[in-house]
Amino acid sequence: MIQKNNYNLEQDLHALKSLLAPRSSSIARSEVGVTIAPTYRYSYVEWFRSYSLYAMAAVLVAFFTFKGLPVSQANDLASLDILSLDEGDRIALMDFDEELAAADIEMQFWDLAEAND
Amino acid sequence: MTREELDLLYREQFGALYRFVLFKVRHTQTAEDIAQTVFVRALEALPKYKRTEAPPSAWLFTIARNLCIDHYKKHSSITPGDETGFFSEIADLRADASESATDRERKQALAVAVSELSESEQEFVTLYHIEEKSYQEVSAIMGKSEEALRAINHRAKKDLKTKLKQFYDDTKE
After folding, report:
1. Residue B96 belongs to a domain with what CATH number?
2. CB proximity under 8 Å: A 26-65 to B
3. For residue B147, what are the domain limits?
4. pTM for the whole thing?
């Protein structure tokens, strides 16, 4: 005997609407502050994966940049002399030297003060 | 469209957007996130929005579809999970006390079957059968003619009935 099921596909499909409703907290969040960008949930693996790629790219860029420099420029960089700098850079470096000297004097002062105590 | 109109439209469509995305990503939390991001994207694009013949909701669904594509591009390693387990979990959460176990089982199986349909069939079933949108609206959202949609409808129902033979087909006793 052939028996036809009573189930109606279209009715059941429509019933999925209530079965698959978003959670109440999600609706509340969207009603209260829809303009707030949602916080994405990244796994540590994804973070590691994306950041390790950036790090690798940075290392490669640095490697090829320095490898590509002519030897003379590399030597210039290594023996950076204050005389080879323009005036602005020279002043900046001198200021730094002065600050370094001042810090040195201050350290000496505190050493002396400590010795006197 | 004003910001207030968009806000109202989004609230009306939130559930439908969520289900539209859910069948694509098969993950409740991701579906909620994407459905919320739709509003943020729509808000950003609001100054450029131009009224067309298509209903404004079609614009939101297009944004949702693009966000799903972006999601899969960003997370290319994602593989479809255990949909049966996923939908069972959902069905348990929304279990209706008056519903029999058989009814629940049938709806779970149906939800799984919908998630396994082809992209166009799945979108059509979600929008037309589950959300009860008109052919005109579905046509605007999917960018397909009504004739094409009728063919998709025929194929989708046939596929679902084949997959769920025990529920929706003639059975021999």
Report:
1. 1.10.10.10
2. 26-27, 29-31, 34-35, 37-38, 40-41, 46
3. 83-165
4. 0.62
